[in-house]
Design a protein that fits this description.
- It is a single chain.
- By secondary structure, the protein is an alpha/beta fold.
- It has 3 domains: 5-112 and 252-334, 3-Layer(bba) Sandwich (FAD/NAD(P)-binding domain), CATH 3.50.50.60; 115-249, FAD/NAD(P)-binding domain (3-Layer(bba) Sandwich), CATH 3.50.50; 341-397, no CATH class.
- The protein has helices at 18-27, 61-68, 129-137, 155-165, 179-190, 193-205, 256-261, 295-309, 313-317, 320-336, 370-377, 389-397, 413-418, 422-430; strands at 5-14, 34-37, 72-75, 79-85, 88-93, 96-107, 111-113, 126-127, 146-152, 169-175, 211-213, 216-221, 228-232, 237-241, 244-249, 251-253, 265-266, 269-270, 283-285, 352-354, 359-360.
- The protein is globular and about 65 Å long.
- The two termini are 23 Å apart.
- Bound molecules: flavin-adenine dinucleotide.
- Flavin-adenine dinucleotide is lined by residues 15-20, 37-40, 45-47, 79-80, 108-113, 130-131, 133, 155, 158, 251, 254, 257, 287-288, 294-295, 298, 409.
């Protein structure tokens, strides 16, 4: 039996990762009702998934304590799929539809890995680098497994260190960005004490693992699952036998909900002012959705957003110098891990680009837009709703993303039927 649930908050935070947790901590005050909502069973987001606990050996413990001791409502297992009217979000949970009313909203929806298609990329045991890490965190045995890590971005190094610590045989890390593109970023890391210390720790942990800049995956082969991966630098090719390929091409922000709300964007990220307010008054954004910049940037921006949304402007302003520094770091990261054009030539005609609807590259190349491809091939109309293939087609074919339509995540028809407002009834007819 499903029910409809209604909630009212002064400040609602969407996203329970570091940015959302920091925002909730900063916004928490005796006479302000603050809630944080996330689709997962616990808070923590991508980095602290399965480890957001009081354990003092955990770096997240400080934030766990702050959340525990603050008057914050935690709404777990709620997937926000629609923003039917100003001040209202709709979410689905196991027990039905939840309608969330807010006075101020802080968006901290984070980022996901970017996947690019190449021949064989859909074979079992090829997965996102962060995804493989999450599976190991959830109990996947990895001892002795041969793993190649490929794609782009600092996450490859983080995951390599994690897998090695869990006794996997990490064979190599192939970073598509050429060394000359990475060097200015590396210089920036050297001049930042905190980042340098992290980088040195990773260097020590990965002393025996080759890091190949300017190399990328070209062809994966195997009968029923991955057996070899061919990597290339554009001139040479090596075939590497392996059990897993952990592969992601940096991160893309989860901007579907900000788009639905009408928040302005720049270069694919949500635009904010120095208080983290978006182009819509009363709606703030923090973390990876304003620019991929890592943990420190997410925490800092979340804190500023929490202060700003509750009128603590002096406290927010005191963080402005740190904010500028983290934005410079994020821009440098974006330049360092920009994708090389050769990756556009990776898919063969038969390579699936949309794996939900089995749409190969050859069926897409003749189209001139995402809309045309969707209408004629069903690309992007499967269960991921274009979250995987949409970012790939944007890079491969240069199709800009088009308007976002609700529901932004797959939801049960029963949930839509529960929504009584006219916008949601439009929704039921749209799918
Ligand atoms: C798969 C993956 C693994 C990563 N692992 C590491 C790591 O080990 N170490 C590291 O330093 N960095 C890691 N990162 C990068 C890290 O996520 C960022 O550096 C930063 O911590 C992001 O914080 P955030 O709060 O902005 O977003 P996130 O941590 O991504 O949090 C956003 C949260 O919002 C939730 N959400 C989004 N949309 C909705 C919705 N519609 N309804 C309900 N909930 C929603 C998400 O489920 C998520 O829990 C990883 C990134 C990814 C994508």
């Amino acid at each position: 039996m499903c029910n409809a649930h209604t909630h009212n908050y002064d400040v609602l935070i969407l996203g329970g990762g570091p940015a959302g947790i920091a925002a909730a901590s900063a916004a928490a005050a005796p006479h302000t009702s603050v809630a944080i909502v996330d689709e997962n069973p616990t808070l923590g987001g991508q980095i602290w998934r399965n480890s957001f606990a009081a354990d003092v050996s955990d770096p997240a413990a400080h934030w766990y304590q702050r959340i525990q001791h603050s008057p914050i409502t935690r709404l777990h297992d709620l997937r926000v799929f629609h923003a039917p009217s100003p001040g209202t979000l709709q979410a689905e949970a196991g027990n039905g539809l939840h309608t969330l009313h807010y006075k101020k909203l802080i968006l901290a929806t984070g980022a996901r890995e970017r996947f690019l298609p190449f021949p064989g990329w859909t074979l079992p045991n090829i997965m996102g680098a962060g995804a493989l890490q999450n599976m190991v965190k959830s109990g996947l045995p990895i001892t002795g497994k041969r793993i190649v890590i490929a794609g782009s971005g600092p996450l490859l190094i983080v995951v390599a260190a994690y897998l090695k610590k869990h006794h996997a045989r990490v064979i190599c890390i192939c970073e598509q960005a050429p060394l000359r593109q990475l060097l200015p970023f590396a210089k920036g890391v050297i001049t930042n004490t905190e980042k340098l210390s992290q980088a040195l720790q990773y260097r020590l942990q990965l002393l025996t693992v080759p890091y190949r800049a300017g190399w990328w995956p070209a062809i994966a082969r195997g009968q029923s699952q991955l057996e070899t991966i061919t990597v290339t630098d554009g001139a040479r090719r090596y075939i590497i036998p392996c059990d897993y390929l952990a592969c992601g091409f940096h991160l893309v922000p989860n901007i579907e909900l900000p788009s639905l709300l009408g928040c302005s964007q720049s270069n694919g990220f949500v635009k904010v002012d120095t208080t983290q307010q978006t182009s819509i008054p009363g709606i703030y954004a923090a973390g990876e959705i304003t620019g991929i910049g890592g943990l420190e940037k997410s925490i800092l921006e979340g804190t500023i957003a929490g202060y700003s949304a509750t009128g603590q402007s002096t406290a927010a302003q005191q963080l402005s110098a740190a904010r500028s520094k983290s934005l410079r770091f994020a821009s440098a990261m974006q330049r360092a891990f920009a994708l090389r054009p050769e990756l556009r030539r990776l898919p063969a005609p038969s390579t699936l680009v949309c794996r939900c609807e089995d749409v190969p590259h050859s069926h897409l190349v003749s189209h001139s837009s995402w809309r045309s491809a969707k209408l004629h091939t069903r690309c992007g109309m499967g269960s991921c709703q274009g979250r995987v293939c949409g970012t790939a087609t944007e890079f491969l074919y240069g199709w800009p993303s088009e308007s976002v339509r609700p529901p932004i995540l797959p939801v049960r028809l029963q949930t839509l039927a529960q929504a009584e407002d006219p916008a949601s009834q439009e929704l039921s007819t749209a799918i």
